[in-house]
Amino acid sequence: MSINRKSFLKLVGASAAAAALGGCGGGGERNASAEAAAGGRSPRPVTLSGPGMSVVKGADVRAITRRAVAELGGMGLFVSRGDKVLIKPNIGWDRVPAQAATTNPDVVAELCVMCLDAGAARVIVLDNTINDPRRCYVRSGIKAAAEEVGAEVPFLEDFNFSSVNVGGELIREWPVYREALEVDRIINVPIAKHHSLSRLSLGMKNFYGLMGGRRNQLHQDVHLSIAEMTRFFAPALTVIDAVRILTANGPSGGSLNDVKQLDTVIASVDPVAADARAAGFFGIDPATISHLEIGSKMGLGTLDLNAIQTAEVEI
Amino acid sequence: MRTARRISQVVFFCLFIFLLVMTEYNGTDQISYPVKIFFDFDPLVAVAAFLAAHSLPAMMLWSLATVALTVAFGRIFCSWVCPMGTLSHVLSHNKLKTAESVRRNRYHKRQSWKYVAVAFFLIASALGLQIVGFLDPFSVLIRSFALAVNPVFNFLARALLYPLLTLDWPWLNAIVEPMFTFLRRYVLSFEQPYFYQGLFIGLLFVAIAVLNQVRRRFWCRFLCPLGALLGLLGRFSFLKLVVNKETCTSCMLCNRNCEGACEPHSTESWVRAECLPCWNCVEACPHGSISLGLGLPGRKDASVDLSKRAVLASAGTAVGALALMRIDPRKLAPSSRVSSGRDSKKHNPLLIRPPGAVDEEEFLKRCIKCGECMKVCIKNAIHPTLMEAGLEGLWTPYLKMQLGYCEFNCTLCGQVCPTGAIEKLTTEAKHVNRIGLAFFDRNRCIPFSLGRNCIVCEEVCPTPKKAIYFEEVEVTDRDGKRQVIKQPVIDPHLCIGCGICEYVCPLVDKPGVYCTSIGESRSSSNQLLLDVYGSGKI
Q1: Counting CB atoms within 10 angstroms of each CB, which of A26, A178, A299, B320 has the fewest?
Q2: How far is A50 from chain B (nearest CA, A)?
């Protein structure tokens, strides 16, 4: 366990440095370039004028998704004309949307529409699934919904993984899906779920799906690996699907008894704050979830929900 | 007629390839065009399965159409329909000189082998030993294509195209990418298939192919038990060959071009049961002396070379083979006397049959080793056995969880099985169908042996209430540091043996969790828990 302690100390140092560079202030004007400074990808910075997070509740899934992004200032803030955008939902399981193991297809499709309307040249939706990808893409409803609105939903190809330096203490060289390295923007669209080892599977955990190789080993230090992946992929926007959440037997689920309908979508430029807010749905204090704590110390975002201006809307 | 026959051969061969390619998951839970359709028209498999298992899937009644066709017109099926015949036909091309070619194309007395073979298979089936799959032409063809030819094709296509795809040359990409997309979408398997014994089965197939250079259509003439059955059925057909003696010059060109070595050079020498009505003789004759058409069978057709002695020998061999295979410890007969159940020790832990497979004894009577379930398995988990099910069960399907696992919502193997050895399950029935049971090897499993977290197995466990749960245990490392970790445990009431835990285990050389066949739904004796299964049945 000495390695953990060592890496932890280094993280504290790194986060102090990141804070000094002026990353994670709360509210008002916020420059999200701290994500880029810390990670491997370096996307354009986003300049916010409104709130950093929105929580929208309502029965119409597409409408709440649209509103959640609109509250932050609209998709135009994140996507420019000609951009190549990767939308990363959770398509990991051979389950139907009602079982709440995969991201709601309407949330994904609405984000695709918004990106295309904002002028994106290409919108790509993909995931490195756990169950058979063909079954997952079909049964989650995501392939059909996203393709219908004009996004590409390709299956992952072996030759498209490149081994890159992820820049972590734990994850150094690792095969990563090439599209994720090449796109202008990554929009992370997880579903909020229970997970036995990481406690919850939210936005930061969702990046497992862009990794290749022996990713099952990452479980051995699940929290640090989650934080390091988030730093590396530097999402422009996190949209958490909490239309239905999975409260037990996650992340695969399967029983409708474990599903809770919340009709809510969270959108945020801050991957840590978004997850912290979603943790509340499960009655969990976000400060007790190690990967959120590590993430905040890395400077990926804030755990303090009072420090980020949040728009709460019900429609 | 020859042109019509050629068109028919091409059409049916393409149909076979099309159905084989379609025997894969393609976005719906139900498969529409499995290659098993060919078996529905195979009377040999229908008769053998019926004799052994005393039951017959309704679809196999289509084989009566083949029977009717043969009784009326002889072995039309062999020369116009059978893709194995077409393949043998094409591979038989040679450049021999006329004299040698005529000599090698005369009727050979060992063409009677195939009748001995069919007699053996049918007698053995009647005795309960159904092993027709070793030589049934569709079993051989589909097994070879599914386990060897298709994987080789996939390997070569990928080996060629992948490097080209990674190059960043726009003009090349413009050609290769659409090509790859098309192949990927419609022809190639979703992932490169790998099969145990694929190499061996491929080599056997090459041997069968090469034998065609020894004698034309070696397979059809000497080995094919279906051809033999059709020969027996068609020996009194209305097919009639007549040679006009007035115009015949005995040039033997008819014989040179003959597919079946049926001696078409005179009305008297013609062997109806060997004739694969190909019309080559008619086309080859420079004088138009041969006519092949319909007519009442005239003389007694003594042309089937199957003596009473040969039938008796086949019967004797079948009995001997049956007895030899039944003294295998795996075949221990039920005995209620011994409480330790000596007979229940016969179960092989490695023999995890596909979901929906019937009880082992019945399974062996139905399975024809065709490999369709292996071809269709979405995770490439089903492989041919070597000796796990005895010699009798060679090449029957079993699951190897390190290579794949049984996908929770998938029911394809039962849908493509031609003989009902694997029964068709609804998704709901599949969810509770146990194919085995998982066990942790606590000497290897990381949280037990190394005191670190892992539980990938728990994460992926597919039952709605997970069959793998965990206990939180405090462990102390060598420096005395205490830590609480999660150690996985199996709930045998929920585990269905799907093997995904074994598949994802980070201990890739020898997993820390593994499945064995015990607890399988299909068996009343391969059981362990009183409260779950308790019947005391053997």
Answers
A1: B320
A2: 38
